[in-house]
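Lecture 7, part B: from sequences to assemblies.

Below are the input chains for today's worked example.
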Amino acid sequence: MARPPAPLDDLARQYGPHRHDAPPGGYEENSRRPHSLVETHCCFCGQQCGIRLKVRDNQVVGFEPWEEFPFNRGMLCPKGVRRYLQNAHPDRLLDPLIRAEGGFRKAGWEEALGTTVSRLTDIQARHGKDAIAIYGGASLTTEKTYLLGKLARLGFGTRHIDYNGRLCMVSAGTAYKLTFGVDRSPNPWDDIPKAQVLLVAGSNVAECSPITTDYFWRCRDNGGKLIVVDPRMTPITRNADLYLPVRPGTDLALFMGMLRVIIEARLVDSTFVEQHTTGFDALAASVQEWTLARAAEVTGVPPQSIETAARWIGEADRAMGLHARGIEHQSKGVENCLAMINLFLVTGHYGREGAGCVMITGQGNGQGGREHGQKCDQLPGQRSITDPAARAHVASVWGVSPDEIPQAGLSAVEIMEAIHRGEIKGLLSMCFNPLVSLPDAGYVREALEKLEFFGVIDFFLSETAHHADVVLAGGLHEEEEGIVTSAEGRVIHIKQAVTPPPNARTDTDILLDIARRLGKEKYFPFRSSGDILDELRRASKGGPADYGGISYEKIDRQMGVFWPCPTEDHPGTPRLFEGGRFFHQDGRAHLQSSAWRESGDPVDADFPVYLTTGRVVSQYLSGTQTRRIGPLVDQYPEPRAELHPRLAESLGVEDGDWVAITTRRDELCFRAMVVKTIRPDTVFVPYHWAGLRSINRLTHRTLDPRSKIPEYKVSACRLRKVEPPPERLPVALPMAGAR
Amino acid sequence: MFGYGFYVDPERCIGCRACENACAECDTHRGTSMIHVDFIDRRNSIASVPTVCMHCEQPTCAEVCPADAIKRSDDGVVQSSLKPRCVACNNCVVACPFGVPKMMTQLEQMMKCDMCYDRTSVGKRPMCATVCPSQALAYVQPDRIQVGRRETPTNRFRFGNQVITTKVHMMAPAGRDAIAVDVVDYMWEAQR
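Predicted structure of the full complex, as structure tokens:
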């Protein structure tokens, strides 16, 4: 029974989250002493801004802008500016921990690793190989994700490995693979300023990928028009030329309505459609019923706005679309992406400068982290695990027979459900905080408590790790060399700036030690991250995500290499589909038709308001890192419920009052933020907090049937005013772990 | 950095506070930001605006200082108060038309943006203008600022009868040579 070994308040007092506010020795002292500079990248978000870390005495003590790195040219957001404060942090786990009576006790590596391996293999001996699962994360370097995938499949022999990118990029990835035969943003960001029209859907760029704002403003300076699709007026909307306040969960209807306008107005590029696509007739038929009147009725967007947006895209020579979790975090996330892509395909906006529809990857290694083996259905190089040829290739690189590679396993949410059902009894999790980040957190807690064995590899004790039997003290982003791939498909080089504290280890060390204890060291002969990259290059070779010609040295020389890059002398591929050549066997893009469906948690008389969730600029994901950085905590100390004055007045709520939000799962209280920048039928709460501040207690587990992404962006709820302050809330603001 | 100008364009601000955070991290500021970002009216709008010292040619803060503690250097940068002279009277804080100076109560000294003297003097751009991800703060050569931008820079501000000329420029809608903030400035009486 994997229950926390002590009251959560006690664990929070001991392990945090505590604030870290200043560099080692304080600002005064820090400014006087010399330092060296390491050119690397920020660990927060898929923009992967170049940054120089100040290093002294094996600690990161500050930052300097890195103006030569072409993507962000020195620009940063507050997370990047303060990211150095996660180093030398008082909450850093310095030793392995083992659950004991009344708390965790420090343990040696021999005991911690020995226990982890023997308990997991014992479960497998009693209940079968697939009775354990591995969770990975998209903040890890690509080398680590490759290693984790290989460890699951060859080390433990389980088919169940999946990762927290399942909560991020899989709807877009599925849609791009269906349509194009490859899962990557087709355009480099340098294309954005060259577009004449930008359609930005479900992406709070100013807060979730702030550097992209610079590209938008440059586009507008060049005369480009900005269209924003969002239930909230996010900060970029202040300069939008057209704003479409779409009702949560209705993006598909909007895009189908727009496509019908494009077809009716004869704005289809029929030459491009005939020469480079398949499926147009079926697609055209599928949107016939989506008249402007119906689209407006379903989406809550004025018909003339829908028509104008469609015409601007259809009439432009170069148009680009950008989408993110807003349209992807839905039970029809894949359909939303397909329908948005279709707008740009039928108008011929692909394979050219300033033309294309791209996804904005959210997590640090959201792109690279899904390409090389920690996704339940993929092998390295973005190869399908069900494809016999792909299995044969990877098996030959690994030196095993294809039969020894397990088949596809369950996805992240499905793994938690299998744990809840008692089918999966052991879990090893790295870089993942599912108690905060998965939907329906009460259900997740129940599942975690059923585990026979739970091992965690992390550098802070996350809320999920409270349930662990063994915690292996892993390494920080700045403690290991590796590669990651940014939102635009640029493979970049993360440098080792410092080494882990004496008794902590790098993640790679831990994984290799586990492999050795499993008796599988012959498959893991790696002595450095570079060794892993060499094998990864061979394993990816010939696949859609071909890293064959990518090396650390080449990345440094070119300031990044866009994949595919099959050979040493290949410069990389910033823009995909040049000349209208797509990655499917027939070289064409396959237009996909969709049919309208309702959300998995429908609004009704009992739950009449839409609840939608997202991020704020100063926090990142489940907050394991950013809730420990003082200035970022101060910037947005607690989640607020954003609601429109019209809704607030109907509830008798004023700004700063407390409201209870109730869904079909649970009820929580938040302080209200009354603003006219959100639809009156919608309430927004950001998701970075735990315990009674965790909005994911209220979200639901309905998944997109193909991508298996949860529907975070659309839940049904009701609200009522409550008296402040609810006593059960812990007082210390960053102490968000308590019940 | 010789020949560079500082430009503020509030319309491009996304309220992310990268500038505030970076200003605090600058070696000479030691954890305290010398600039600030305001959401103007969050209930009704997402509009936000960064405020840096405008570095006036005739700084009101210096004019009202009873201790002669605020100096403007030859290159037009208005400095924080001189520690030995500052009497922490708050006159400058109250008088500045832009609301810039801050009283550091613990230090008993007024501190304000000095346009990153430590950085610009060694060829680096000011911290805030380097990190700003949305072009709301820019430190560039004057002939670069209008490449592509529709707005025009202006550095004359009318506060009723007081006209202030500043080292820092504000990006204004095209065709304006000064920014007036008082309705009176737009009335027929004021033109006489």
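Note for the exam: The interface with chain A takes residues 11-12, 14-18, 20-22, 24-25, 27-28, 30-31, 42-48, 125, 127, 130-135, 148-150 of chain B (CB under 8 Å). Keep this in mind when comparing with the next example.
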